[in-house]
Amino acid sequence: MSNVIYFVVHSFSHKVRGGVNRVVAETANELATKDNMEVNILSLGGDVENTSYPVLENVNVYTLNMKKHSTNQYKSIFKVFWIFSAFFAVFNCYKNQKNKAVWNLTSPALIILFSLIPKKDNIFVGCEHISPQRYKNNFITNTLRKFFLNKNDFNISLNESDDQYYKEKGIKSKLIYNGVKFPKKIDDEREKSIIFVGRFDDQKNPLEAIKIFYKSKLWEDGYILKFYGRGKYQENIINKINEYNIKNSVEIFSNENDPDVIYKNAALLILTSRYEGFGMVLIEAMSRGIPCVSYDCPHGPSDILVNGTNGYLVKMNNDADFIEKMQLTLKSDFRSLDIMNSVEKFKIQKVCFDWENIISNKGI
């Protein structure tokens, strides 16, 4: 009998990108290469004829065609209506699944939703993807979160800090890093390009990246800052570029999703986020031998970056030190192979060993 897993997401349509869907696609594709494995992606809404990211032919992608597939489509107390509409849509699909399965729930809203569904012999695995340490820390919040999260068989922590936090709160947790598919070949050729990869929003803090690049004066040496992403801050980014008068030294790519294009020949990746759940772009860059400079934001980059080996961690909001570490990195003789080897444990093949054990054993 096949081992079965469902990755449950709000939307896996090409209109919805982002880290969660990228992780789901990478993990699903790797698991689908294993014998006797049935891999499914269940999307609550969205057209999945064109998926967020490419998946193998034997990865089954389903949609429930919910028009309002996310709590973000409701305001304040009306978010509760999402639970009712989503429950009936999901339960009708769930009850028709004959084989016992592992269900990976990829958001707090989905974790709450599945807490209302009879588990029977299925395994529910939650993953919040944004650090749980960002939530309000009071008795009521902690009690409710513990109740809903412990309805799962366990919850995935994406970094060591979150794993420890869950366990201290009495929440069942297992540390499983996000995995990345490493390229078959590393290109040692580097151009004078510095890249920023992420949403153009407050969390990813792209305006800080522009300010740092401008103050670094690296553009005077011919370096170009390339932004890969999209979001509500795009106009602000353009305004800052014009304000600093560096439009010939900054490029924006809003529709590029191929990592082989994004990271090709880059000299450096910078991460200026206010917080992270993991920091997957760091692994994607390092797997291609690209050094990184990142703010030591909570929570994730400190699990990945090793000062002087694959880049540098910088204390939050210390832009002077950030600039110094950028300049030091670009002058240093980092070996691409050493950088790649430093993140070996994040290879998708190694990460999926944990998933295979969960699916085949139907538990931890």
Descriptive account of the structure:
The chain is an alpha/beta fold and 364 residues long. Helices cover 35% and strands 18% of the residues. The chain has helices at 19-31, 80-94, 108-114, 139-149, 160-168, 206-216, 234-244, 259-262, 280-286, 301-304, 319-331, 336-342, 348-361; strands spanning 3-11, 37-45, 59-63, 102-105, 123-126, 154-157, 173-175, 193-197, 224-228, 250-253, 268-271, 292-295, 311-314. Helix 1 (19-31) packs across helix 13, helix 6 runs parallel beside helix 7 and helix 6 crosses helix 11 (319-331). The protein is globular. The relative contact order is 0.12. The mean pLDDT is 93.
Our count of helices gives 13
Radius of gyration: 21 Å
β-strand percent reads 15-25%
Task: Report the count of strand segments.
Answer: 13
This entry's quaternary arrangement is single chain
List the uncertain runs: none
Strand order of the largest sheet: 3-2-1-4-5-6-7
Shape verdict: globular
Approximate helicity band: 25-40%
Mean pLDDT across all amino acids: 93
Element string (H = helix, E = strand): EHEEHEHEHEHEEHEHEHEHEHEHHH
Task: Please give a quick description of this structure.
The chain has 364 residues and is of the alpha/beta class.
